[in-house]
Design goal:
146 residues, 5-stranded mixed sheet, two-stranded parallel sheet, 7 strands
Amino acid sequence: MSFTDTVQMIPEISDYLSDGLRALGNNSRKINAADTRLINGSIDLDTSLRNSYPQANRWDYIIGYNNKAWFLEIHPATGKEVGVVLKKLAWLKNWLNMHAGGLNNLKASEPYHWVASDKMAIPTTSRHYRLAATNGIIPKKRLELR
């Protein structure tokens, strides 16, 4: 099943599917796509689920690329924010399992990405960096869709 068809089957987010990277607004500048024709659409997950989960640490975006789902968090890359991003990641995984199983089946080989909203400020020798790495979510400056 295609990314678009899968999203259309998830009532909580189906109305929020945008063409290309439009759902990301200015954050789309942090994305490099090897082939822009392969972008299937994007969803501002945080906005689309704000009313349903007002107190949750919601994940930011979902991008469809080559009919694979990529999950993107744009967030400050500082040591004190690692815990927040890990809470958001745990929330996302739970939401996918409970409400969006079809997207789980479309996940890219490395589906979860943290892109720094500003400069990178987590030393690679710090315990915060090791914690992020242990959880498979090291912050980066840009997301490369390939």
